[in-house]
Amino acid sequence: MGILHSLLLAGAFFSTAFAEPDCVEHYTVKPYDSCWKISIEKSVALKNLIAWNQHRGNCALYPGDVLCVAKYKVQCNRTHMVISNDWCWKIAKDNDIDLNKLVALNPNLVQSIDECNIHPGQQVCVG
């Protein structure tokens, strides 16, 4: 019984320790909203928006639906609005911050240095 109990406790610890964080910001869908529009307005990666709202499948939205748009609370003192021809390296350089820091400051929007899909209209935290 001791080994089984230990295994159950270890499983509970690891599932809690490595669980995905809860949603920290919700958005109520309005008429004519689309996942793309919400991802731009709320500065969240489209990939995250879809993953965090799995019950939406192919992103079929209806007015009144409540979506998770942020899993990470971000404290930001300065932002940069993405414009055409912006990319993460350029934004980091223009704002005198390390690219890794830019990624760390934007966990809802930027997946990694290699997966930095930003789009005009999104707000990127730069400090």
Automatic annotation (TrEMBL):
Entry keywords, A to Z: Chitin-binding, Signal, Virulence
Family (UniProt): Belongs to the secreted LysM effector family.
Residues in LysM domain copies: 25-69, 78-126
InterPro entries assigned to the protein according to its UniProt record, in alphabetical order: LysM (IPR018392), LysM1-like (IPR052210), LysM_dom_sf (IPR036779)
Annotated signal peptide: 1-19
Molecular function terms from GO: chitin binding
Coiled coil (residue ranges): none
The keyword Signal is assigned to this record: yes
SUPFAM superfamilies, A to Z: LysM domain
Name of this chain's protein: LysM domain-containing protein
Superkingdom of origin organism: Eukaryota
